[in-house]
Amino acid sequence: MTAYPELKLHIDGEWIGVGRRRVHRVVNPANGAALGELPLVDAEDLDRALEAAERGFREWKRVSAEERARVLKRAAQLIRERVEEIAQVATLEEGKTLAETRIETQVVANLFEFYAEECRRTYGRVLVRPTGTRSLVVKEPVGPVAAFAPWNFPVGNPGRKLGAPVATGCSVILKPAEEAPASAMAVVRALIDAGVPAGVVQLVFGVPDEVSRHLLASPIIRKLSFTGSTAVGKHLLALAAATVKRTTMELGGHAPVIVFDDADLARTVEMLATSKCRNAGQVCVSPTRFYVQEGIYDRFVAAFTERIRRVNVGDGLLPGSQMGPMANPRRPAAMERLIGDAVAAGARVHTGGERHGKEGFFWQPTVLSEVPLQARIMNEEPFGPVAVITPFATLEQAVEQANRLPYGLAAYAFTESSKRAMLIGDAIEAGMVGINVTVLAAADAPFGGVKESGHGAEDGPEGLEACLVTKTIHQA
Ligand code: NAD
Predict the structure, then answer these.
(1) What is the DSSP pairing of strand 366-369 with strand 386-392?
(2) Cα separation of 127 and 10, whole Å?
(3) Ligand 1 pocket check for 232: Cβ under 6 Å
(4) 229 alpha carbon to ligand 1 midpoint, in Å?
(5) What number does the ligand 1 atom closest to the CA of 178 have?
(6) What pLDDT is attached to residue 443?
């Protein structure tokens, strides 16, 4: 078993321990036991990080794409070598199963490798001009980035926040969630060990509102990159507007799932149950509002409930566990509020609906039906292991329900008809649509939302584009 590491900040090339700083107590969500004390920054630390980020950017943007690629590839290799250690630490502090944290860690290595290749292809254009004159369109790194990553993918979110800026020649001040800091430290450490110079990647923890106000008020920061709730996203967008910063916002979702009569029932149930319980439903693309066509509705509800009942809930470090605890005490409390409200409004509970066990932040995987439209859970992102099932008659009705909310992150449909698949793919208002699949993330595929789920994409060439600005040079 890997020991939980001493928690540190990384500012201007230096790893900094607690010293006389304020601290945040990190706990294991499986049992509430203390894991470690995290140092929190003050204004002086942030000013130092800003000044270093400016220097780091000037140095790193001059480095060749080949050298940046070499560093990213080496970091990917180090992450692969350390996968077991990183996965154990991530499970300890976030709760999800070891099987999940192992995959998440490999995915960061894949992403760094993809960016190592893609960063050599940030091409511009040569415009058609008379002989002896030139007009060039060139791409340049946007500048120092302030990035805020949440706790739900403690390794993956920091990986996404760092990969594209480092690949394009930007510097980054990363503030991951204080609840899962050691996983983010491991990703930063891999980049530092791989040769990223001082000031290019810095790691700070603090009181979130203090840190974001301080960094976003600074003209040194040229871009805000945030993953988290829509409410916090709106607040940060307003702060970034004061200095007209570039933004990438990956915000909340409330993913609809449309299951047609002709879907392959057994396969659909298996995929959706696994996807629903991934990270105890604390995933922005988690399938949540299930719309099931009338002809298959009763069979689907019975089979899905039966499958969800068999999910083995337990400490993510134990080999038999299929779903770990929720990441913090706010999540089971939110489940209690949302499910309680739905039940009071007339919802039927097919399975779950309560806390699980006596210690830690566990919640039973839950299936609800007959939930009225005005219940809070039909409108607010539950971010937990709960599926709400509603019948529908026609494709048009299902689309209307799917597009009803201001969210537009992920949506899913299950059908064996390619005509329906095409119609639904076109009609859904979402940044990502899964048809007969539930895995939406890949290193080469843009990941992001529309409407109040945010804008800008991470991963894929679009993730790099989001860290570049365009300059046109006319020469006679
Ligand atoms: P929250 O809205 O308070 O925080 C979400 C994230 O934003 C956290 O990582 C937090 O540290 C950060 N944050 C909060 N205030 C901030 C500020 N002023 N400046 C900078 N960062 C700030 O909620 P929470 O209880 O941590 O998480 C629950 C909710 O967050 C969920 O309901 C879900 O909607 C959302 N969430 C979404 C994602 C996602 O991937 N889109 C990830 C995690 C959480």
Answers:
(1) parallel
(2) 44
(3) yes
(4) 5
(5) 11
(6) 98
